[in-house]
Amino acid sequence: MKRAIFWRMMAVALAAVLLSGGILLWAFYDAVTDELDDSVEREARIAAQGMEQAADPQAFLDGFAPGTRVTWIAADGSVLYDSEADSAEMENHASRPEVQSALRLGAGGGSRLSDTMRERTHYFAVRLADGTVLRLSETHETALGRVYGILWVFVLLFAGMIALCAMLARQASRALVEPINGLNLDDPENNDVYDELAPLLIRLSRQGAHIREQMAQLETRQTEFTAVVDNMAEGLVLLNANLRVLAVNRSALALFGAPANCLGEHLLKLTRDHAIVQIVDRAAAGTRCEQIVEIGGRQYQAMANPVKGGGVVLLLPDVSERYAAERMRREFSANVSHELKTPLTAVAGYAELLASGLAKPEDARGFGQKILDESGRLLALIDDIMRLSRLDEGAPGAHMQPENLGEIAQGVAERLRPLAQKHGVSLAVDSDASIVTGVRALLEEMVHNLVDNAIKYNVENGSVRVAVKDGALTVEDTGIGVAQQDQQKIFERFYRVDKSRSREAGGTGLGLSIVKHIAQLHGAQVSLESEPGKGTKITVRFPK
Ligand code: ADP
């Protein structure tokens, strides 16, 4: 803007200088020309009078000062005398305009420019009484010629004027622009610069307020969005059409182990997981994709959704628990079928023998007993499975109430005393009156399963000690023990260290899973200490 103003001013100043210079020159030129014309006419008239009275015209004509050319022309145009050239060699002058005028009207003048325009010759001719014509001419430098002579002055003057104009234009443009540059745009209406700027400043002020309002709204929205997104347990990543990260929440950063400053980076900087990159690519092409991915040993259901106008939203909920539960259910179904099949096959086998009549009558009783045993096992198994599925169905929260764990332990132990005696195992109970919140039937079942195991997996003359103290139940035996590598697994469904011993003892492989499940429902912790050949100690610690 400053530059534009400067050049405009310069153009105006130059035009003014050139125009005024030109007009001055022309006026000067015109005045000088007129004056010279007049002086030649005056001189010519005086000379004509002198010539009329002169006794010797030749001498009279010779007496003119140099600089004034005198030509005496006869009525027919031939030159009789010329002060500067040989009259005999001069052409006929009858056609010259001033001569013609003099012959016709008595006097006539004119002027002619030289080819270079630097000189002008002024003529004036007067007809004498004898019919001859006396012409005077003077050659003078024209105004232009004079200007040529002092051209350097003009150049100097012009340069000086331009320099002065440039300086003034610079100052003026700066003075004009400076207040605009110094405008306080943070508070546009509080500027006192040019009245013409007021509408613009008011508009700026209104727009500024509008923009501030919108920014505040955006910031609020951004804060809300960040708060919501950062508190999500699921990983969330927003990507633009070029798969660069627009937003990523804390869960996603933790999940990928990525730094917080990955905004604007490509997805690959966040994760190189092939499955994720693939579904994001497909979502970017417009297809919604979903896939279970494993990161750090946990399962996530990666969902990539295309966004209208380009971009992808990637959501990563943790589905490890659901995944594990589903897997367990699948395995459980397979195991249940397998476990049911064994006793049923035996039952079917014996029944077939009996039905075919091939069995000897004396064996029939034994087969009948076997069928009874296997059916009992089947029923026990079905009972346990039903119990487990009931437990799987959910927490019995509403039925929980304070129960005396010591009393429960005592009761269960008494019921199992005959079994202990049958196995030649001594059973001792040492309980206080610990009160725990729970479901009596489940607590009884838990104690039953633990004491039952302690008796079943014991040795001849072994012992079992049941203790309840400070809300913790301990069942300790001097039995066969569990090897280190099996200690965790025995709590899994259908896991048995020694399958045939468990079968003989009427085990289903579900007892400890039920114990674990009941403990979980009560918020209790189960721990196991065991050494093969020495014995096992299982403790269930209830929350205080
Ligand atoms: P089971 O019906 O076979 O007893 P459990 O779930 O109760 O099923 O026990 C799983 C396995 O853990 C048993 O088969 C047994 O091998 C082992 N076990 C459980 N309790 C004891 C114990 N007190 N001493 C030694 N081994 C045990």
TrEMBL record:
<dbReference type="InterPro" id="IPR003661">
    <property type="entry name" value="HisK_dim/P_dom"/>
</dbReference>
<dbReference type="InterPro" id="IPR036097">
    <property type="entry name" value="HisK_dim/P_sf"/>
</dbReference>
<feature type="domain" description="Histidine kinase">
    <location>
        <begin position="335"/>
        <end position="544"/>
    </location>
</feature>
<protein>
    <recommendedName>
        <fullName>histidine kinase</fullName>
        <ecNumber>2.7.13.3</ecNumber>
    </recommendedName>
</protein>
<dbReference type="InterPro" id="IPR004358">
    <property type="entry name" value="Sig_transdc_His_kin-like_C"/>
</dbReference>
<keyword id="KW-0812">Transmembrane</keyword>
<dbReference type="GO" id="GO:0007234">
    <property type="term" value="P:osmosensory signaling via phosphorelay pathway"/>
</dbReference>
<dbReference type="InterPro" id="IPR003594">
    <property type="entry name" value="HATPase_dom"/>
</dbReference>
<feature type="transmembrane region" description="Helical">
    <location>
        <begin position="7"/>
        <end position="29"/>
    </location>
</feature>
<keyword id="KW-1133">Transmembrane helix</keyword>
<feature type="transmembrane region" description="Helical">
    <location>
        <begin position="147"/>
        <end position="169"/>
    </location>
</feature>
<dbReference type="Pfam" id="PF00512">
    <property type="entry name" value="HisKA"/>
</dbReference>
<dbReference type="GO" id="GO:0030295">
    <property type="term" value="F:protein kinase activator activity"/>
</dbReference>
<dbReference type="Pfam" id="PF02518">
    <property type="entry name" value="HATPase_c"/>
</dbReference>
<keyword id="KW-0067">ATP-binding</keyword>
<dbReference type="InterPro" id="IPR036890">
    <property type="entry name" value="HATPase_C_sf"/>
</dbReference>
<dbReference type="InterPro" id="IPR035965">
    <property type="entry name" value="PAS-like_dom_sf"/>
</dbReference>
<dbReference type="GO" id="GO:0000155">
    <property type="term" value="F:phosphorelay sensor kinase activity"/>
</dbReference>
<dbReference type="Pfam" id="PF13188">
    <property type="entry name" value="PAS_8"/>
</dbReference>
<dbReference type="GO" id="GO:0016020">
    <property type="term" value="C:membrane"/>
</dbReference>
<keyword id="KW-0472">Membrane</keyword>
<keyword id="KW-0902">Two-component regulatory system</keyword>
<keyword id="KW-0808">Transferase</keyword>
<dbReference type="GO" id="GO:0005524">
    <property type="term" value="F:ATP binding"/>
</dbReference>
<dbReference type="InterPro" id="IPR050351">
    <property type="entry name" value="BphY/WalK/GraS-like"/>
</dbReference>
<dbReference type="InterPro" id="IPR000014">
    <property type="entry name" value="PAS"/>
</dbReference>
<dbReference type="GO" id="GO:0000156">
    <property type="term" value="F:phosphorelay response regulator activity"/>
</dbReference>
<keyword id="KW-0547">Nucleotide-binding</keyword>
<dbReference type="InterPro" id="IPR005467">
    <property type="entry name" value="His_kinase_dom"/>
</dbReference>
<keyword id="KW-0418">Kinase</keyword>
<keyword id="KW-0597">Phosphoprotein</keyword>
